[in-house]
Amino acid sequence: MKNISAHQLFCAGGTVIFWRDTAGPGRFTRRAMPTTPRSADLKLTGLTGTLRCCQLFTGLPPEDLAAIASFILPLHLAKADYLFHEGEPARGFYLVQAGAINVHRVNATGKEQVIHVFRSGESFAEAALASRTGYPADARAVEASTVLLIPKAPMLDLIGRRPDLALRMLGSMSAHLRVLVGMLDDLTLKDVETRLLNWLVKHGRTAQAGVIKLPGTKRVLAAELGTSSETLSRTLARLRDRKLINVAAKSVTVHDAGALAALLRRNLGES
Q1: Each residue of 57-85: pLDDT tens digit?
Q2: Which residues make beta-bridge pairs with 30?
Q3: H/E element holding 49?
Q4: How far are the Cα atoms of 83, 175, 207, 219, 250 from residue 198, in angstroms, in the given order?
């Protein structure tokens, strides 16, 4: 050991070892390698952080978040992969960690009607916890996505011990119901242009610099508006030609929000 310098690093059999010359000149003692977090601990920390960002779990104490994170199952989906189909037995509910999930129904003619596109931090299918029937709709990844499956049995057990969590989940399901009611109201508007104007005005209120990010592809937006991709493209083109908007692959930029709102009111017969 006398030719070894202080603090020299060795790797013996794959184990990293530190040596120190605290025992005097030419004499070295062994020091344990600093411990690093295990991958399982890092995974649990990441899942807990995702839960904390979800409205459903906001305000829960760390011990409850850790308990939920301990039985979560991460699922990775490629674009266009199905998470579940209508009628399948419910395994639990889901939280989007990354990507986007299109929840929709298909009618007897094969036409797809988008219910909602859920993005990072949003939960869905909570009603599965209180229902013995299967999922009421289909769910498909709009893009490569990671979703967290929160299994039914352990979650119900936790809810039994934490009634306040059940109230939070009722609030979340109420929010989803408001989305559905709003969607039904939008679909009763008389034509595609009016439905599109209504969508642009609603989403333009919170858009940064007038840039509205599309919920996936234009095909997804067309389904959400109850029309075809071709009809949506023609309607967008008419608004673009009037210099009210600009259309990109994944966004729509509103140039004149006031003119869009005025056109919507005129179409609705309000002015």
Answers
A1: 877 788 888 889 999 999 999 999 999 99
A2: 19
A3: helix 39-52
A4: 30, 20, 14, 18, 19
Residue in the structure block whose two tokens are 């966004």: 251
CB distance 194 to 185 below 8 Å: no
Give the span between the Cα atoms of 221 and 116, in whole angstroms.
10
Single-letter code of the amino acid located at 57 = F
In angstroms, the CA 182 to CA 185 distance is 5
Rounded to whole angstroms, the Cα distance separating 252 from 210 reads 8
Q: Per DSSP, what are the bridge partners of residue 73?
A: 149
CA distance 209 to 252: 11
Starting from the edge strand earliest in sequence, which strands make up the sheet with 92-98, in order?
Answer: 73-77, 145-151, 92-98, 123-124
User: What single letter denotes the amino acid at residue 138?
Assistant: D
| Residue 208, strand partner residues | 211
Strand partners, 29: 20
146 exposed, middle or buried (CB, 10 Å; 0-12, 13-18, 19+)?
Answer: middle
Under a CB-based contact definition with an 8 Å cutoff, are residues 99 and 141 in contact?
A: yes
Please name the residue ranges forming H helices in 188-250: 192-204, 218-224, 229-241
Query: How many Cα neighbours within 13 Å face the side chain of 134?
Result: 9
State both tokens at 64.
């409850």
pTM: 0.65
Q: Using one digit for the tens of pLDDT, what is the confidence trace for 102-130?
A: 898 888 888 787 788 888 888 899 888 87
Q: What does the DSSP 8-state code read for residue 57?
A: G
* 17 dihedral zone (left: phi>0; alpha: psi -120 to 50; beta): beta
Structure tokens at 166: 């059940």
- Mind listing the domains of the chain with CATH numbers? 1-35 (no CATH), 39-186 (2.60.120.10), 192-267 (1.10.10.10)
